[in-house]
Amino acid sequence: MSETEQSFGITLEQVSDYEFRVRFDDTPIPDLITDETAPLGGNAGPNPSRMMATAVANCLAASLLFALRKYKNAPGTMGAKAKLTLTRNEQGRLRITHIGVDLQLADKAEVYEHLDRVLAQFEDFCIVTQSVRQGIKVDVSVHDGDGKQLSIPGEG
User: Fold this and answer.
1) Residue 4, Cβ density class (10 Å: 0-12 exposed, 13-18 middle, ≥19 buried)
2) Distances from the Cα of 43 to the Cαs of 16, 36, 47, 86, 150, in angstroms?
3) 102 with 80: CB under 8 angstroms?
């Protein structure tokens, strides 16, 4: 493995039916239960599609938080919502075709230093979103504490 590569592993173990225990190898992270939704599964945990929406939203929120702090901001509690769209392909199989993420800042835009720079670059540092975007459309919006949508440079 080169200096630019990193790797990690997870282990899945079937618990019952479509329910799996996920172990995050070589970490102290507690196990996670995943499952398919009813009627196929028993809803014992998130399914892989929900995990993908979670991964994209969480990565974007963490990237935005990092970028804000990089410019010496002390943002309040942030929030994020994600909506994932499944569409049937030509063969009638469901595929993820879109993920929309809305990030919510705690404060008015005016209190943040260098917000234009933050908004211009934070998405580029999100490993998950940039990887997913190679095959799935991902739209991102950011709202300040007053609910005002902030424009992200380079996006229409």
Assistant:
1) exposed
2) 12, 6, 8, 18, 36
3) yes
Helix (H) or strand (E) holding 101: strand 94-104
* CB neighbourhood size of 10 (10 A): 11
- How far CA 109 is from CA of 79, 100, 135, 144, in Å, comes to 15, 21, 32, 6
Q: What is the pLDDT of residues 57-108, one digit of tens each?
A: 999 999 999 999 999 999 999 999 999 999 999 999 999 999 999 999 999 9
Query: Quick one: which H or E segment has residue 110?
Result: none
Residue 31: exposed, middle, or buried by beta-carbon count in 10 A (0-12, 13-18, 19+)?
exposed
Is the model's pLDDT at 155 over the cut of 80? no
Other C-beta atoms closer than 10 Å to the C-beta of 99 total 24
Distance CA 150, CA 116 (A): 9
Q: Which of the 8 DSSP states describes residue 8?
A: -
Distances (CA, A) of 74 to 59, 104, 118, 153: 19, 15, 13, 22
